[in-house]
Known about the structure:
The complex is a heterodimer of chains A (114) and B (111). Chain A contains no helices and 11 strands. Chain A is mainly beta and 114 residues long. In chain A, strands 2, 4, 5, 6, 9, 10 and 11 form a 7-stranded mixed beta sheet that branches. A 4-stranded antiparallel beta sheet of chain A has the order 1-3-8-7, with no helix packed on it. In chain A, strand 5 (44-50) and strand 6 form a beta hairpin. Chain B is 0% helix and 53% strand. Chain B has strands spanning 4-6, 11-14, 19-25, 32-38, 45-50, 55-57, 60-65, 70-75, 84-91, 99-101, 105-110. In chain B, the strands form 2 sheets. In chain B, strands 2, 4, 5, 9, 10 and 11 form a 6-stranded mixed beta sheet that branches. In chain B, strands 1-3-8-7-6 form a 5-stranded antiparallel beta sheet, with no helix packed on it. The interface between A and B is medium-sized, with 23 and 20 residues.
Amino acid sequence: DTGVSQNPRHKITKRGQNVTFRCDPISEHNRLYWYRQTLGQGPEFLTYFQNEAQLEKSRLLSDRFSAERPKGSFSTLEIQRTEQGDSAMYLCASSSDRGPWGYTFGSGTRLTVV
Amino acid sequence: RKEVEQDPGPFNVPEGATVAFNCTYSNSASQSFFWYRQDCRKEPKLLMSVYSSGNEDGRFTAQLNRASQYISLLIRDSKLSDSATYLCVVNRDSSASKIIFGSGTRLSIRP
């Protein structure tokens, strides 16, 4: 296990289409986070899982966004009816609540809505 | 007001110079603090944690001032490879449930 893996790396979609991203965290990590980053800004928190439970959701996460982590391992983030304002880098990170503190980020999925 | 604020820069300094960034946070209950580095079109990577007593890692020194609610990062003898965006990060609570990022400070080191 070499780190956090995100797929796809890039996604171009037409406005109104649905998209789904996947994140595979570091296997020993029980916490998983989704962040969104736009140009010139720091990552903004979207949601957080501890094991399979979604413990917190940002107000940024509108009804069109849904995230799951069904077995407490990989996670998916789905955006329905995409809008141009959804264009951003979607970053996934994982951490453990045991052992040394540290978030490890994946390389992100860059979404472009045209 | 943003919870974590940074000067966006860019800071453009010559190689070998010393450069310092500050970051302020609004939540006085914040528990822990970090600096992350982000290269263009890459993911953020942990640079260093920031401890109350201040800490140093090679050319990098981080300081925390809880009374004034700011943290700082000092880079000595800057290298071309230090060019990046430096993100100030605050963990609100001891459970480390989520971290809050500043918008980042862009640093460009020129030869």
